[in-house]
Design a protein that fits this description.
With about 250 residues, this protein is α/β, with parallel strands linked by helices. It is built from 13 helices and eight strands. The radius of gyration is 18 Å and the shape is globular. Helix 2 runs parallel beside helix 3 and helix 4 runs parallel beside helix 5. The protein has one domain: TIM Barrel.
Length: about 250
Protein backbone atom coordinates (compact mmCIF):
# COMPACT_ATOMS: atom_id res chain seq x y z
CA UNK A 1 0.00 0.00 0.00
CA UNK A 2 1.04 3.59 -0.49
CA UNK A 3 1.62 5.83 2.51
CA UNK A 4 -1.67 7.61 1.86
CA UNK A 5 -3.53 4.30 1.73
CA UNK A 6 -1.88 3.16 4.97
CA UNK A 7 -2.87 6.36 6.76
CA UNK A 8 -6.43 6.61 5.44
CA UNK A 9 -7.66 3.02 5.62
CA UNK A 10 -9.46 3.63 8.90
CA UNK A 11 -7.01 1.65 11.02
CA UNK A 12 -4.29 2.83 13.36
CA UNK A 13 -0.80 2.51 11.89
CA UNK A 14 2.47 2.11 13.77
CA UNK A 15 5.61 3.54 12.22
CA UNK A 16 9.26 2.77 12.82
CA UNK A 17 11.59 5.69 13.49
CA UNK A 18 15.18 5.89 12.23
CA UNK A 19 17.74 8.25 13.76
CA UNK A 20 20.88 6.16 13.13
CA UNK A 21 22.49 6.82 9.74
CA UNK A 22 22.83 3.74 7.57
CA UNK A 23 20.89 1.85 4.94
CA UNK A 24 21.14 -1.53 6.65
CA UNK A 25 19.50 -0.47 9.92
CA UNK A 26 16.80 1.27 7.89
CA UNK A 27 16.17 -1.95 5.95
CA UNK A 28 16.06 -3.96 9.17
CA UNK A 29 13.46 -1.58 10.58
CA UNK A 30 11.46 -1.68 7.35
CA UNK A 31 11.41 -5.50 7.41
CA UNK A 32 10.32 -5.62 11.06
CA UNK A 33 6.67 -5.18 10.10
CA UNK A 34 6.06 -1.49 10.72
CA UNK A 35 3.35 0.14 8.61
CA UNK A 36 5.68 2.98 7.61
CA UNK A 37 9.19 4.20 8.34
CA UNK A 38 10.28 7.72 9.21
CA UNK A 39 13.82 8.83 8.45
CA UNK A 40 14.53 11.61 10.91
CA UNK A 41 16.82 14.30 9.52
CA UNK A 42 15.87 16.78 12.23
CA UNK A 43 17.08 15.10 15.42
CA UNK A 44 18.51 11.99 13.79
CA UNK A 45 22.20 11.93 12.85
CA UNK A 46 21.34 11.64 9.16
CA UNK A 47 22.55 13.81 6.30
CA UNK A 48 21.14 14.04 2.78
CA UNK A 49 23.37 11.38 1.21
CA UNK A 50 22.55 8.95 4.03
CA UNK A 51 18.85 9.78 3.79
CA UNK A 52 18.88 8.81 0.12
CA UNK A 53 20.39 5.37 0.69
CA UNK A 54 18.00 4.81 3.61
CA UNK A 55 15.03 5.64 1.40
CA UNK A 56 16.33 3.11 -1.12
CA UNK A 57 16.72 0.45 1.58
CA UNK A 58 13.22 1.03 2.92
CA UNK A 59 11.86 0.81 -0.64
CA UNK A 60 13.52 -2.61 -1.08
CA UNK A 61 11.40 -3.86 1.82
CA UNK A 62 8.24 -2.41 0.25
CA UNK A 63 7.46 -0.18 3.24
CA UNK A 64 6.20 3.40 2.73
CA UNK A 65 8.66 6.06 3.83
CA UNK A 66 8.38 9.54 5.25
CA UNK A 67 11.14 12.01 6.09
CA UNK A 68 11.12 14.37 9.03
CA UNK A 69 12.85 17.38 7.57
CA UNK A 70 15.09 19.63 9.70
CA UNK A 71 12.73 22.62 9.60
CA UNK A 72 9.86 24.23 7.70
CA UNK A 73 12.22 24.99 4.83
CA UNK A 74 11.08 24.60 1.20
CA UNK A 75 14.47 23.39 0.01
CA UNK A 76 14.62 20.59 2.59
CA UNK A 77 11.03 19.55 1.89
CA UNK A 78 11.47 19.47 -1.89
CA UNK A 79 14.79 17.60 -1.76
CA UNK A 80 13.27 14.89 0.47
CA UNK A 81 10.32 14.47 -1.90
CA UNK A 82 12.55 14.50 -5.01
CA UNK A 83 14.63 11.77 -3.33
CA UNK A 84 11.55 9.57 -3.18
CA UNK A 85 9.97 10.12 0.23
CA UNK A 86 6.22 9.55 0.12
CA UNK A 87 5.71 12.40 2.55
CA UNK A 88 7.34 14.76 4.98
CA UNK A 89 6.89 15.58 8.64
CA UNK A 90 7.54 19.29 9.12
CA UNK A 91 8.60 20.38 12.64
CA UNK A 92 7.47 23.34 14.72
CA UNK A 93 4.51 24.56 12.68
CA UNK A 94 2.93 27.23 14.86
CA UNK A 95 0.27 28.88 12.70
CA UNK A 96 -1.99 28.44 9.71
CA UNK A 97 0.39 30.56 7.64
CA UNK A 98 3.31 28.28 8.48
CA UNK A 99 1.17 25.23 7.68
CA UNK A 100 0.26 26.76 4.31
CA UNK A 101 3.96 27.30 3.58
CA UNK A 102 4.71 23.63 4.30
CA UNK A 103 1.82 22.50 2.10
CA UNK A 104 2.96 24.76 -0.73
CA UNK A 105 6.43 23.21 -0.74
CA UNK A 106 4.86 19.75 -1.04
CA UNK A 107 2.58 20.51 -4.02
CA UNK A 108 3.23 21.50 -7.60
CA UNK A 109 1.36 24.52 -9.03
CA UNK A 110 -1.39 25.49 -8.92
CA UNK A 111 -1.80 23.78 -5.53
CA UNK A 112 1.63 24.91 -4.32
CA UNK A 113 5.07 26.02 -5.42
CA UNK A 114 7.09 22.80 -5.49
CA UNK A 115 9.72 22.99 -8.21
CA UNK A 116 9.77 20.29 -10.91
CA UNK A 117 12.67 17.83 -10.67
CA UNK A 118 11.46 14.50 -9.23
CA UNK A 119 14.88 12.90 -9.75
CA UNK A 120 14.21 9.66 -7.86
CA UNK A 121 10.52 10.11 -7.09
CA UNK A 122 9.59 9.51 -10.74
CA UNK A 123 11.73 6.37 -11.17
CA UNK A 124 9.54 3.41 -12.10
CA UNK A 125 6.41 5.56 -12.24
CA UNK A 126 5.46 5.68 -15.92
CA UNK A 127 2.62 8.14 -15.39
CA UNK A 128 4.34 10.41 -12.86
CA UNK A 129 2.90 13.89 -13.15
CA UNK A 130 2.35 16.98 -11.02
CA UNK A 131 -1.26 15.94 -10.51
CA UNK A 132 -0.31 12.41 -9.40
CA UNK A 133 2.35 13.72 -7.03
CA UNK A 134 -0.05 16.25 -5.53
CA UNK A 135 -2.58 13.50 -4.82
CA UNK A 136 -0.10 11.06 -3.33
CA UNK A 137 2.35 13.11 -1.23
CA UNK A 138 1.58 13.38 2.48
CA UNK A 139 2.15 16.68 4.26
CA UNK A 140 2.32 16.23 8.03
CA UNK A 141 2.78 19.35 10.15
CA UNK A 142 4.07 19.08 13.69
CA UNK A 143 2.17 20.86 16.45
CA UNK A 144 4.59 21.09 19.36
CA UNK A 145 3.88 24.29 21.29
CA UNK A 146 1.08 25.84 23.29
CA UNK A 147 0.56 28.65 20.72
CA UNK A 148 0.29 26.07 17.94
CA UNK A 149 -2.23 23.94 19.83
CA UNK A 150 -4.23 27.06 20.62
CA UNK A 151 -4.50 27.57 16.83
CA UNK A 152 -5.14 23.91 15.98
CA UNK A 153 -8.55 24.57 14.40
CA UNK A 154 -6.99 27.09 12.05
CA UNK A 155 -4.05 24.81 11.20
CA UNK A 156 -6.23 21.81 10.33
CA UNK A 157 -8.40 24.06 8.17
CA UNK A 158 -5.49 24.74 5.79
CA UNK A 159 -6.14 22.89 2.50
CA UNK A 160 -3.51 20.25 1.89
CA UNK A 161 -2.64 19.52 5.53
CA UNK A 162 -2.97 15.74 5.67
CA UNK A 163 -1.67 15.06 9.17
CA UNK A 164 -1.21 16.95 12.41
CA UNK A 165 1.68 15.21 14.14
CA UNK A 166 2.11 15.95 17.84
CA UNK A 167 5.52 16.23 19.48
CA UNK A 168 4.66 15.52 23.15
CA UNK A 169 8.08 16.37 24.57
CA UNK A 170 8.36 19.79 22.94
CA UNK A 171 4.76 20.46 23.90
CA UNK A 172 5.56 19.59 27.51
CA UNK A 173 8.52 21.98 27.45
CA UNK A 174 6.26 24.68 25.99
CA UNK A 175 3.92 24.16 28.95
CA UNK A 176 6.80 24.52 31.41
CA UNK A 177 7.10 20.81 32.19
CA UNK A 178 9.96 18.36 31.79
CA UNK A 179 10.15 16.77 28.32
CA UNK A 180 8.82 13.38 29.37
CA UNK A 181 6.42 14.52 32.05
CA UNK A 182 2.98 13.02 32.42
CA UNK A 183 1.12 15.99 33.84
CA UNK A 184 -2.67 15.79 33.81
CA UNK A 185 -3.08 19.06 31.89
CA UNK A 186 -0.55 17.93 29.28
CA UNK A 187 -2.48 14.70 28.76
CA UNK A 188 -5.84 16.47 28.72
CA UNK A 189 -4.82 18.87 25.99
CA UNK A 190 -3.36 16.16 23.79
CA UNK A 191 -6.40 13.93 24.25
CA UNK A 192 -8.53 16.65 22.62
CA UNK A 193 -6.49 16.71 19.39
CA UNK A 194 -7.88 13.67 17.53
CA UNK A 195 -11.49 14.88 17.56
CA UNK A 196 -10.53 18.29 16.17
CA UNK A 197 -8.55 16.54 13.42
CA UNK A 198 -11.43 14.19 12.59
CA UNK A 199 -13.83 17.11 12.33
CA UNK A 200 -11.65 18.52 9.53
CA UNK A 201 -10.75 15.25 7.81
CA UNK A 202 -7.14 15.38 9.02
CA UNK A 203 -5.15 12.45 10.43
CA UNK A 204 -3.94 12.74 14.02
CA UNK A 205 -0.38 11.51 14.60
CA UNK A 206 1.88 11.44 17.63
CA UNK A 207 5.35 10.35 18.71
CA UNK A 208 5.20 7.62 21.35
CA UNK A 209 8.12 6.90 23.64
CA UNK A 210 6.99 3.45 24.79
CA UNK A 211 4.58 0.59 24.12
CA UNK A 212 2.40 1.95 26.90
CA UNK A 213 2.16 5.34 25.20
CA UNK A 214 1.40 3.66 21.86
CA UNK A 215 -1.59 2.01 23.53
CA UNK A 216 -2.65 5.18 25.34
CA UNK A 217 -2.62 7.45 22.33
CA UNK A 218 -4.22 4.85 20.08
CA UNK A 219 -7.08 4.59 22.57
CA UNK A 220 -7.32 8.40 22.57
CA UNK A 221 -7.94 8.34 18.80
CA UNK A 222 -4.53 8.95 17.24
CA UNK A 223 -4.07 6.82 14.13
CA UNK A 224 -0.52 7.66 12.99
CA UNK A 225 1.57 6.35 15.85
CA UNK A 226 5.36 6.54 15.88
CA UNK A 227 7.18 3.89 17.89
CA UNK A 228 10.42 4.62 19.77
CA UNK A 229 13.44 4.96 17.49
CA UNK A 230 15.73 2.08 16.60
CA UNK A 231 18.37 3.66 18.84
CA UNK A 232 16.02 3.54 21.83
CA UNK A 233 14.95 -0.03 21.05
CA UNK A 234 18.58 -1.16 20.68
CA UNK A 235 19.63 0.51 23.91
CA UNK A 236 16.69 -0.98 25.82
CA UNK A 237 17.26 -4.48 24.46
CA UNK A 238 20.98 -4.33 25.24
CA UNK A 239 20.35 -3.06 28.77
CA UNK A 240 17.70 -5.72 29.41
CA UNK A 241 20.02 -8.49 28.19
CA UNK A 242 22.89 -7.29 30.36
CA UNK A 243 20.63 -7.00 33.39
CA UNK A 244 19.49 -10.60 32.93
CA UNK A 245 23.04 -11.90 32.44
CA UNK A 246 24.41 -10.07 35.47
CA UNK A 247 21.68 -11.02 37.94
Amino acid sequence: MTLREVLTNGKASVGGWCVVPGSFTAEVMARAGFDWICIDTQHGLIGYDQMLTMLQAVAVAGTPSVVRVPWNDPASIMKALDAGAAGVIVPMVNSAAEAAAAVGACRYPPAGYRSWGPTRAALGVADFSPELANRSVICAVMVETVPALDQLAEIVSVPGVDVVFIGPSDFAISMGFAPRSDEAEHRRRLEAVPQICRDHGVIAGIACGSAELLARWSQAGYTMLAAPSEMVLLRQAAAAMLKTVRQ
